[in-house]
């Protein structure tokens, strides 16, 4: 099995803890276009403390570059002094919750816009060489603004890439969880009733999706109609869209010059029996259902171990079910209690 650990990162913040684990699938050779991160600001339940996490699943020849730029941009943005102050003021103000929620969503919208622009700007200075799994190495031809295969000079690829995004922002003191979704990377929230209710049947799991699995899918009729109405070179295909030579199952993405970056937002207030938040690329949620993912994670005390085991579980199931065609698979696991 050609899965491989790419990175583990974990952070501790009072009782809220998160970690990310990612594995390369077998389908695209030794290349992982998924990225994930967990970032926190301040400790414990100090006013203004929050946890931010995300998963990005890149596509195209430079999909990994797009996903990495997304992580770097989002993390750097939230570390800027001006943004830190603004987030702090937003979370600490005693105004009504609706206004605060609106302001946090505005912040998320801005970081998405910023990240999109940063990835688009990178089209002007693409890396000189790129590795694209089984298709091998490519070199950038500046004159023609395209990539040419190092081993097959006739294999030319245009510059076209992007990434899905699922961002989760948890305002700890106000127990408010925000998600922003672009594409088919998803978030799930749930937990075990036994943790809070001694009479609750052990093994009773509650779980809900915090994103819409088909909101940005080329199978979604409303989305197909929206895509057709936009003035862009996107064409519809069976259960997919076609942008130049590329066939995509998703209709929105970050950093893709022809796709919408209008995210789906959701705001929830986690209940006592909802202790686990899972963010995953489609490598996770195409294979493991929401309830099973939550059931699996509550068995662990350490989010890093939960994320790793969940990814291993998903890749092993995929290997059996999809005859060794295993996608890049990334999970962020956050324990909220
Ligand atoms: C949200 O949390 C902040 C920081 O602890 C607090 O000052 C504020 O009153 C809370 N807002 C509400 C509506 O509870
Ligand atoms: C289809 O897409 C629209 C627009 O993105 C969304 O509001 C709707 O919920 C989606 N339908 C399903 C079944 O996900
Ligand atoms: C390298 C790799 O496996 N990339 C794939 C990750 O998953 C997305 C979609 O699920 C593909 O578009 C990437 O090519």
Question: How does this model look, in words?
Answer:
- The protein has three domains: 5-123 and 160-214 and 263-335, 4-Layer Sandwich (Phosphatase 2c, domain 1); 129-158, no CATH class; 217-251, no CATH class.
- Helix content is 28%, strand content 32%.
- It has seven helices and 19 strands.
- It has helices spanning 63-79, 81-92, 97-121, 221-229, 282-285, 290-297, 303-321; strands spanning 5-13, 16-23, 34-41, 50-60, 129-131, 137-141, 146-149, 156-158, 161-163, 165-171, 176-182, 186-192, 205-209, 234-237, 240-243, 246-248, 264-268, 276-280, 329-335.
- It has a six-stranded antiparallel beta sheet.
- Helix 1 packs across helix 3 (97-121).
- The radius of gyration is 20 Å and the shape is globular.
- The two termini are 35 Å apart.
- Bound molecules: 2-acetamido-2-deoxy-beta-D-glucopyranose (3 copies).
- Residues 47, 92, 94, 97, 173-174 line the site of one 2-acetamido-2-deoxy-beta-D-glucopyranose.
């Amino acid at each position: 099995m050609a899965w491989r650990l790419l990175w583990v990162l974990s952070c501790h913040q009072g009782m809220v803890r998160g970690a990310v684990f990612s594995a390369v699938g077998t389908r695209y050779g030794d290349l992982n276009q998924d990225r994930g991160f967990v970032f926190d600001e301040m400790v414990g339940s100090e006013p203004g403390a929050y946890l931010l996490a995300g998963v990005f699943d890149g596509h195209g020849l430079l999909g990994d570059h797009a996903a990495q730029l997304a992580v770097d941009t989002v993390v750097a943005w939230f570390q800027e002094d001006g943004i830190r102050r603004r987030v702090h003021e937003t979370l600490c103000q005693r105004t009504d919750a609706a206004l605060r929620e609106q302001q946090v969503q505005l912040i998320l919208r801005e970081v998405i816009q910023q990240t999109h622009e940063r990835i688009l700007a990178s089209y002007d200075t693409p890396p000189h060489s790129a590795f694209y799994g089984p298709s091998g190495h490519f070199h950038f031809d500046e004159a023609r603004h395209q990539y040419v295969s190092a081993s097959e000079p006739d294999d030319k690829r245009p510059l076209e890439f992007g990434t899905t995004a699922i961002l989760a922002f948890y305002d700890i003191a106000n127990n408010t969880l925000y998600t922003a979704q672009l594409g088919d990377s998803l978030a799930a929230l749930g937990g075990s009733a036994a943790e809070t209710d001694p009479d609750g049947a052990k093994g009773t799991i509650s779980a809900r999706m915090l994103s819409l699995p088909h909101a940005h899918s080329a199978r979604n009729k409303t989305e197909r109609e929206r895509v057709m109405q936009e003035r862009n070179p996107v064409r519809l295909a069976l259960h997919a869209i076609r942008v130049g030579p590329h066939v995509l199952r998703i209709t929105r993405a970050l950093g893709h010059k022809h796709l919408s970056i209008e995210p789906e937002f959701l705001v929830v207030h986690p209940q006592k029996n909802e202790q686990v938040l899972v963010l995953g690329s489609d490598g996770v949620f195409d294979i493991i259902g929401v309830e099973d993912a939550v059931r699996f994670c509550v068995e662990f005390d350490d989010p890093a171990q939960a994320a790793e085991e969940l990814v291993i579980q998903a890749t092993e199931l995929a290997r059996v079910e999809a005859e060794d065609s295993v996608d890049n698979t990334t999970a962020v696991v956050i324990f909220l209690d």
